[in-house]
Amino acid sequence: MDAAFPFGFPLATGFYLFFYVFTLTIHVLFMNYVLAGTGYAVISELRRVRNATALRSPMAEILRDWMPAMLSGAITAGVAPLLFIQILYQNAFYTSNLLLLHRWMSILPVLIVGFYLLYLLRADRLANASVLGRGVMA
Fold first, then answer.
1. How many whole angstroms separate alpha carbon 130 and alpha carbon 125?
2. Of the four listed, 25, 34, 43, 100, which is most buried by Cβ atoms within 10 Å?
3. pLDDT value for 22
């Protein structure tokens, strides 16, 4: 194991490990955009609650417009690492999924609600809502 990653492994294992790490990195980039962007949007809306005369942050507007697309990217990019990890850790992965079934399934409603809340945050109707209402939605 003195070789650089992924060359210290057999060819097939190195191939799957490389693409697992590569696709996981893409997923993490999208995921961090969504997490940090949502946090920034919440903070900028809460600042507007404290100061009613404050203008909207241009960066928060850009983040708000791109957030649904980035969440879609994060969800889509999260599929490939799961497929590669199934190949790399076959028996352990399947056994753990049986034990964690309810936790895995609880992710779906959270993603669905979050996805639609991001679209509502982008809607024009919400632009006329109170600043506190937009902060809660974010």
1. 11
2. 34
3. 95
User: Are the beta carbons of 106 and 13 closer than 8 angstroms?
Assistant: no
Reported as a single tens digit per residue, the pLDDT across 100-121 is 777 777 888 888 887 787 777 7
Question: Which residue matches tokens 């900028």?
Answer: 44
Q: What angle do CA 34, 109, 68 make, to 5 degrees?
A: 30
Instruction: Report the alpha-carbon distance of residue 32 to residue 21 in Å, rounded.
Output: 16
Q: What is the DSSP string of 48-73?
A: HHH-TTPPPPHHHHHHHHHHHHHHHH
Q: Is 67 left (phi over 0), alpha (psi -120 to 50) or beta?
A: alpha
What is the token pair recorded at 125? Answer: 């109707």
